Amino acid sequence: MGLMDRRAAAGAPRRRPLAGAVAAGAVAGVAAGRSRAAQQAVAGGSRYQMRQRMFSIGDDFVIQNAQGQPAFRVDGKALRIRSTLFFETMQGQQLYKIQERMVRVRDSMSILRPDGSPAAKVHNALITPLRDRWQIDIPGGAGLSTKGNIVNHEYRIEQGGRPVATVSKQWFRIRDSYGVDIAPGQDDALILAICTVIDMMAHEGR
């Protein structure tokens, strides 16, 4: 090979082998497809704006929908006496309650109905440096699980492998808030209460 040929070869950009390029494109396509599938699974549902660490607020908080309209009210005044959060309709009807101390056992917390019966039990099933996996037991129904980054509020709640809710901080630019996208046919108040419990337990001591 002459001098000019060697210079031309050295200066030419290195090309990715065709098989490698195809494989990389396939992986990217699968990842994008999964992301689109997750979004489509909750399409047509409802999106809500939540506040982080409600247990540290000790006051009332209104959960708004994507249009900025009041959807649910969280009564946090009882925190000062009974360490309890009440999820209510905007008319004041109690839907669920979370008691920080009374119903906490080890690494789990329970969500109760107004009559005190259990509606859901949330517990941490796996802790890793980058991902947490949480299980949500529903009495008399199919359980739920999470996938994603809990600490950064970027995760999904699934039931039987199908997304029932997506949590993300990307939809709202308000500080200390995150969004919850809930699929149609779900108990929105219960899903929001579950997200609140996960947020409380994941950020405890942080």
What do you see in this structure?
The protein is of the alpha+beta class and 206 residues long. The chain has a single domain, classed as LURP1-related (Porin). The chain contains 4 helices and 12 strands; from the N terminus they run ααβββαβββββββββα. It has helices spanning 3-11, 18-41, 79-82, 188-202; strands spanning 46-51, 61-65, 70-75, 84-89, 94-99, 108-112, 118-127, 132-137, 144-149, 154-159, 162-168, 177-182. It has a 12-stranded antiparallel barrel with strand order 1-2-3-4-5-6-7-8-9-10-11-12. β4 (84-89) and β5 (94-99) form a beta hairpin. The radius of gyration is 23 Å and the shape is globular. The model is unreliable at 2-41 (pLDDT under 50).
Précis, in short:
With 206 residues, this protein is of the alpha+beta class.
What keywords describe this structure?
4 helices; 206 residues; twelve-stranded antiparallel β-barrel; 12 strands; globular; 25% helix; alpha+beta; Porin; single chain
Output the number of helix runs.
4
The proportion of residues forming helix, as a percent range, comes to 25-40%
- Radius of gyration, rounded? 23 Å
- Report the biggest beta sheet as strand number plus sense, adding barrel if it closes: 12 strands, antiparallel, barrel
| Topology pattern, helix = H, strand = E | HHEEEHEEEEEEEEEH
CATH superfamily: LURP1-related
